[in-house]
Structure to design on (149 residues):
């Protein structure tokens, strides 16, 4: 889209009243002028005015879709980084978890088999940050120990 620079003179009182009422800035004036021009154009050529509005909306939609794609990418990268950090567990913490697991593995297997395991308690015991992380770790260790099918 081609852009032209427009220079205009505006009554100072109107400009000051406008700036005191609304936020000021070139973007605000640009949008205000474009909307005014489109309204005037609509009086003479409504088809062209409508086409121009559609073009503006399409550009705006493309910008929003780009933002959304960037936000999703950042979110995915954040989740990937969190998983990577989770996998890089402090060896002493992992050793402590394994010691506790060895002590309680038969009890855990029975609780899981009966469907009466308290994941919140186990989250505290095994020092995890989330229930899903606790569940995943305990179930994988029980399967490794052949205590679960």
């Amino acid at each position: 889209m081609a852009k032209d620079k427009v220079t205009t003179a505006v009554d100072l009182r109107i400009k000051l009243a406008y700036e005191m009422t609304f936020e000021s800035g070139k973007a605000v004036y640009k949008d205000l002028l474009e909307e005014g021009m489109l309204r005037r154009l609509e009086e003479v050529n409504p088809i062209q005015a409508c086409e121009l509005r559609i073009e503006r909306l399409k550009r705006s939609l493309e910008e929003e879709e780009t933002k959304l794609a960037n936000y999703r990418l950042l979110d995915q990268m954040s989740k990937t980084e969190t998983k990577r950090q989770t996998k890089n567990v402090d060896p002493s913490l992992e050793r402590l978890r394994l010691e506790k697991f060895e002590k309680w593995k038969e009890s855990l297997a029975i609780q899981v088999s009966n469907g009466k395991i308290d994941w919140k308690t186990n989250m505290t015991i095994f020092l995890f940050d989330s229930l899903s992380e606790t569940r995943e770790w305990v179930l994988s260790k029980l399967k490794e120990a052949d205590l679960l099918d």
Observations:
- The two ends are 63 Å apart (CA to CA).
- The chain has a mean pLDDT of 86.
- The CA atoms of residues 33 and 106 lie 75 Å apart.
- The chain has six helices and no strands.
